Amino acid sequence: MTPRSSRSRSGALATRRRSRERQPALDYNSLRSLSYHLGKCFWQNIEQHHPDADSLRLAPDVIGQWKQRIATKDKTVTGPDGRRTSAKVERLNHRDTLTQVRAFYLDIAQWALEEPGRWGPWVAPSPVRANELEHRKLQRRRKARVDARTRERLPVLPILVRSVDQRRRDAAATLEAARHTSPGEVFTAAGQQLVRAVVPHGTAGRIWAEDPDTGKRRDLGLEDERAFWTWAVVEVLRATGIRIEELLELSHHSLVQYRLPTTGELVPLLQIVPSKTDTERLLLVSPELADVLSAIICRARNSSGAVPLVRSYDRRECEWQAPAPLLFQRRISGEDRAFTDETVRNMLDQALIATGLTDTIGDPLRYTPHDFRRLFITDAILNGLPPHIAQVIAGHQEINVTLGYKAVYPEEAIQAHMAFLARRRSLRPSEEYRVPTDDEWQEFLGHFERRKVSIGACGRAFGTPCIHEHACVRCPMLWPDPTQRDRLVEIRDNLLAWIAEAEREGWLGEVEGLQVSLAGAEDKLAQMDRRSPGGTAIDLGMPRIAAAQPTQAEGTASLTQSLDDQQ
Known about the structure:
This protein has 567 residues and is an alpha+beta fold. The chain folds into four domains: 3-75 and 87-134; 143-153 and 368-434, no CATH class; 157-367, no CATH class; 452-530, no CATH class. The protein has helices spanning 3-22, 28-49, 60-71, 94-114, 116-119, 136-153, 157-179, 220-240, 244-248, 287-300, 341-355, 369-382, 387-394, 399-405, 410-426, 438-449, 485-505, 508-531, 552-566, and strands spanning 72-78, 84-90, 186-189, 192-196, 208-210, 217-219, 255-259, 266-272, 281-284, 313-314, 319-320, 329-332, 335-338, 452-453, 456-458, 478-480. The strands form six sheets. It has a four-stranded antiparallel sheet. The chain has a three-stranded antiparallel sheet with strand order 7-8-9, with no helix packed on it. A hairpin with a 2-residue loop joins strand 3 (186-189) and strand 4. This is Site-specific integrase.
C-alpha cells in the first residue's frame, strides 16, 4: 500500500464507520444519501484535489477550496448558433452536503465521549460553521421558486389534460381502424391517412402501419398503450395528489367501500398504503376518478378477467415486493411487469413535448410527478378546502408542510381587498356610489379651479368649507407658492405696520387678530425657505499628489494651507 493511499484511507474509513453506525436507524434511501454526501461529495472530492490530506483535520485553505467547488456545478448551454459550451452555475442543494459534513464531525465528537478508544483518534474541528447552515433565507428563496413553478404550471394543466386525452382517443381510433383493414390497404382515422403495413414475419398480435408521405412505420399497438397509460398517470396524479411511489403501489385491493352511517350510501375509497411517512390513509373517489380507475382495471385484466399478480422492485429500499395485482402494469415480451418511476417520468416528458408548451425562457415545459401534488394542494385550498383537511388528504404530518406546498397567488390579495372594499361600501349610504350628475361633476371640477389664491393654493378637501373665512395667511391648508414670496413679504410688512398703528391708537382688539395673521405669514415664509435650495457651493479644489507620504504634521499643515487658500 502506498503512503498516499494509506493517508487517504483514514478519512474514507471514518466516513464508512459513521455510515455503519447510523445504518440501523436509517432506511436504504437515507443511508444512500448519507453515503453520497460524505463519501462522494466530501471525501472523494478532497482526495482528488488535495491528495496530501491525511486526516479529518483539514487545513483552512483546503476547506475553503472544497466549499467553492461544491457550491457550483458545470452546466452545458446551447447557444443560438447551436454551439454547446460549459458554464458554472450554482448548485442549489450544496448546503445539504455542508449539513451532513457538520453532523459527521459532531457525531464523531459525541461518540468519542462514549467510546474514547474507538472514536478518539478521529476527533477534529468541524470545517463547517453553524452560521453557514442558516436556511431561513434559502428556504424563502426555495419557496419562491416552487411557487413560481406551480403558478406557471397550474394554468396550463387543462391543456395537458386535453392533449393526453385526445392522444388516447386518436390512438385508440387509429388502432381500431387498422384492425378492420387488410394488409396493404389504405385507411383513414383521427384525421390521418395510413397504410396497413405488410409484415410477413411480424410478431403475432402487433399491428403496423406506414405513413404514405414519409414512409415511416408505426407500431399502432404500442402507440395506443403509451397514450392510454400516459392519460391514466396524468388523471390519477391530478385527481389524488399522491406521491409517485404511492401511485406505483396502487393495486386492485386499494379500492374499498364505506357505508355512510347516516344515509347508508356506499362511498368508494382509495386506500393509500404506507410510504414516506409510514401512514395509511383513505381518499374519496370522485366519479371522474372512478371512471379512470375502471378503465385502468379493464386494461390491466388478462384473458381470465383477473388482474395479474406482478412483483415490483422498490428502488428506495432495494428489495422486491410481494406479488400483488398492481394497477400500473403492462405486458412486455410476454411477461407482466410493473411500471417504474423512470417510465412514468418519460411518459410525462413525451406528453409535454406533444403539447408544445414552453416555460418563461422558451425551453420545453416539464412536469414532474411531484408537480401534480403541489398543483392538487394549491387548487384544493384555493377552492375553499380547509388546510387541515388538505393535510390529511396529502398525508403530511405537519400542516406547515401542506402550506409550503400551496402557492401564493396575487389573485388572493386582490380578491381579499375587493371583498374588504365591498364590505366597507355596504356600511356607507348607497347614494354615494351613484353616477354623478352634470352639475355635480362641474361643481367637483370647479372646486379645484377655485383653490388658487394670490400667494399659493388651498389644500382643503372637496365639499368642506373654509374654516378661516378666506383668511388664507392664517390657514395651515395654504400651500404657498415660492414665486409669490415678494407678495408675502409685502403682506408681512403691512401687518407689522398695522400692528404698530393699532398699538399706537390703542386698538388692542385689532392687535390680537393681526398678530395671528403675522404668525401665519412668517410661518409661510419659513416653509418657502425650507423648500428652496439654500447655501452656496464651496470649491475644494483638486488634490495635489505628493512625491512621498507626508507625516501627520505635514498633512495637517497642508490641509490648513488649503483651507486658507479657499478662504
